[in-house]
Amino acid sequence: MESPIDKGQEEAAPLMPIRRVHNYAYCPRLFYMQWVDGVFVPNADTVLGDTAHRRVDEPQTIPETAAFKDMGEIRSLSLSSEELGLSGVIDLVDFLTEGCRIIDYKKGNPRRNEQGDWSVKYNDAIQLAGYALLLRQHGIRALIGDVYYAEARRHVTVELTEDLLDEFRRVHKAARETAERGACPDPVCDSRCLSCSAYPVCLPFESRWWKARREEKNQLPPRAPMPPGDPGEILVVQQFGSQVRLSGGEIQVFLNGEQVAGIPTHQLCEVCLYGAIQITAQAQQMLMQEGIPLAWFSPAGRFIGMTQGVFCSGVDARMGQYALYRDSARRLYLASEIIRAKIHNQRVVLMRNGNANDADIKKLASLRDSCKLQPNLLSLRGVEGTAASIYFSNFSSMIKSRFSFDFNGRNRRPPRDPVNALLSMAYSILVKELTGVAHAVGLDPFLGFFHSPRYGRPALSLDMMEEFRPLIADSTVLSLLNRSEIAPGDFTNTSKGVFLSDTARRQFWRAWTRRMDTEITHPSFGYKMSYRRMLSVQMRQLWRFCRNEVPSYSGFTTR
């Protein structure tokens, strides 16, 4: 069937908010990420910006009067124009005798010109020019513009000349063309980046390094690619018959009609439910609105799925992901790099914690180096399987608990001993973490490159998990055992396998959080970040590879 596009009946472009043109004037990459990809990351500056706007956030409309002098002030004036293809909300319009003055509120400070006088930033002036054009479409002449910079507590005036209006038209046209091209612009990599709210997802200096494949230290950012601070608390509910509710901005847990826990939503980063746990519609809606993932597990700890709000669009990344999957050479390259990193990390963990013989250590090194030489995915899977067999045959040498835990190799579905039960739970949670990260960056978690896609199987999450299995999942299990934080009596033996008790699961989550918050040095960039953040950085690198922004992908390895 012929589509409307085939007939030349292309869908009309949506009205572009003037604040997005403001983004483009500041940084084309920021514009693309927010307008095309739908990515917005709040930080301290955006919160302060919201505070600065609070005085003018009560919307008003233009009164039905012909005399400007009688209109007074209008706050949060919402306007749009199909002819211009624009929409916008003006903070404050002050009507004068023959026209009006536009006032926009900004967090921060104005800039100084060559004479040392205060002046409006370029992108702020562009935004005022857009508002002037919108007002002109509605028969109102904007006589002058004014930006109030809250941090400096200073008004700075802008002359709304025809040259400035023409400059806005040029920038708006360039923004439209950039969006239609479907290729994310390169990062600017200057002082603007360090104060940008999109820094944690844009990763400008890292992106430039990935693209150029150079290790010049002056290219790297002077700080880690994320603002400091506690990511929030994880609420785990596992008691049969519990109910999760929302009350007064707090997520509360009830058991037998009594409240047993409560955490304000602004302190939450995730909610995990095990088994028959009820959660109200109000609580689910609040979690989705706040971008807090809700993960569902079976009573035994198997990851079932997630409930989240609307994801970023990520259309171009997913289209690139699908094209990459169909390109057998590039798919093999990516899969081999992931498995190379996994075997390297398995070898490092064994060398650090175990008593593996030299022959096995050398064999793992040989298998690692052979990954790039494999002719197809089948032979690569053979290499991965051989390495896993060597690794798990030596796994018991890393267990130094004061309790007796027998481990005679990996088994699952169901796990038949406590160590395998812990490993299965760790892998399940790691898959859950990476599924959420894949959704967050705009990739399809169900289309992998090493693991084949199957119904209900997040193959991409399983792919990305390979690099981190030894460093996060296995290390969490070893920490629990070797600290003697868990004992054989903390497990339940059934005809269907061995599973963690509620007590064991609580201990596991403490150890898991401890491991995810552990800071390590990035092997390429040299700065420290937590394992939780490292998952996001690696997924962002893959995101760029799928979009053809970078020529290669580097698996995460540790020394």
Can you summarize the main beta sheet? 6 strands, mixed
Q: How many domains make up the coordinates? A: 3
The percent range for strand residues is 15-25%
- Ends distance: 56 Å
Uncertain spans: 1-9, 42-56, 221-230
**What is the general shape?**
globular
The Cα radius of gyration reads 28 Å
Number of strands: 20
Number of alpha- plus pi-helical segments: 17
What would the CATH topology of the largest domain be?
Four Helix Bundle (Hemerythrin (Met), subunit A)
CATH class of the largest domain: Mainly Alpha
The amount of helix comes to 40-55%
What is the correct CATH architecture of the largest domain?
Answer: Up-down Bundle
**Annotated CATH homologous superfamily of the largest domain:** CRISPR-associated endonuclease Cas1, C-terminal domain
| Average predicted confidence as pLDDT | 81
Structural class: alpha/beta
Helix-strand blueprint:
Elements: E1 16-17, H1 18-26, H2 28-35, H3 44-53, E2 73-81, E3 86-95, E4 100-106, E5 111-112, E6 118-119, H4 122-137, E7 142-149, E8 154-158, H5 162-181, H6 191-194, H7 199-202, H8 204-212, E9 233-237, E10 243-247, E11 250-255, E12 258-264, E13 268-274, E14 278-279, H9 281-289, E15 294-297, E16 303-307, H10 315-326, H11 328-353, H12 358-370, H13 377-393, H14 418-441, H15 459-482, E17 491-494, E18 497-500, H16 502-516, E19 519-521, E20 528-530, H17 531-546
Parallel strand pairs: 1-3, 4-7, 9-13, 10-14, 13-15
Antiparallel strand pairs: 2-3, 3-4, 5-6, 7-8, 10-11, 11-12, 15-16, 17-18, 19-20
